[in-house]
Amino acid sequence: MNADLANLNVEKLKAKAHKPIVITMVSLVVILLGLYDIPEYVMAYRSQSWPTVKGMVQKVELSRKDYREGSATAFEILYAYSAGGAHIGSRIKFQQPMAWNDEDTIYLFEHYEQGKPAHVHYDPDNPSESCLISSPSISTVFLKGTLYCLFFLIFYLSFYPQLPDEKAEAPEVREEVLAAER
């Protein structure tokens, strides 16, 4: 048993131990993108070819939060439209941000006022699925993928650092150096 331990290559074991961790992190990035970001991108892309109908904006709510770094606005909307029956929608667009910047808020507020008509894009196969703006953004998917990768890279490096091994000098060399110094 001691002979087996003596023949053990520690570097190969370290490399083998890191592979499952890296594979798991890459898999998590792919799963997160697949579950949360890619379906929204696909729906935004599909919505470009959906037919449009006239709808009516029923309710608009703005809530603003000020932070040290700036401000963010939550813009909520309800609109009614008729496509194979009466429907009520609330999606402004697919890949919608959690908060809108000031320029986007001004645009939304100018174009979607309560009681005013709005063009609604709806899915002909599922008329209850709708949006007001059809614009896919592949850069959003890449940005989130990059952020997921950075998060897992930081996680990996914080728990599994690859520290260089300190090489101890051979005892014979040390003795020869000490003898030469005398």
Strand and helix order: HHEEEHEEHH
With strands numbered from the N-terminus, the spatial order across the biggest sheet is 3-2-1-4-5
Amino- and carboxy-terminal Cα gap: 43 Å
Low-pLDDT stretches are none
Number of helices: 5
Structural class: alpha+beta
Helix content: 40-55%
State which percent range the strand residues make up: 15-25%
Strand elements, count: 5
Rg, nearest Å: 29 Å
**Mean of pLDDT:** 80
Gross geometry: elongated
The biggest beta sheet is recorded as: 5 strands, antiparallel
Quaternary status:
single chain
Q: Which key terms come to mind for this protein?
A:
5 strands, alpha+beta
What is the gist of this entry?
This protein is α+β, with helices and mostly antiparallel strands and 182 residues long.
Description:
- The chain is of the alpha+beta class and 182 residues long.
- The chain is 47% helix and 21% strand.
- Strands 3-2-1-4-5 form a 5-stranded antiparallel beta sheet.
- The radius of gyration is 29 Å and the shape is elongated.
- The two termini are 43 Å apart.
